[in-house]
Model the fold of this input.
Amino acid sequence: MGYARTVRVHAGFARTVDAARQALASQGFGVLTEIDVAATLKSKIGRDMEDYVILGACNPQLAERALDIDRDIGLLLPCNVVVRTEGSTTVVQALDPATMVTSTGLDAMSAVADEATRRLDIALAQLAEELNR
Done:
């Protein structure tokens, strides 16, 4: 089973990061954290790599519902969204919310995961449509 929901776009990295933030916001997700993996690896161990950012996205209503079902679900929150360059394209990936169900084994988590999946899929589709014109 795959654990990523992925789109590829033909836009620059910085523009894609900004557009990803906007697309996520349109679906109720705020970005709580941003980790510039490329810059961190360069400064900490001198390693060069392609542009690679992890956005920690959270929809507060969905997080509340998930936490009410299982307090341990915080280990899987926020929803990580990766923006990275790959050759001539920029890749945007979101952790598949179904991972919450398979990881916890709690059927009650299905409704939350389904709603999160629907919202993330809309955001990714909007992003791809905007940047692949």
Notes: The helical segments are 13-26, 37-45, 60-69, 98-104, 110-131. The chain has a mean pLDDT of 96.
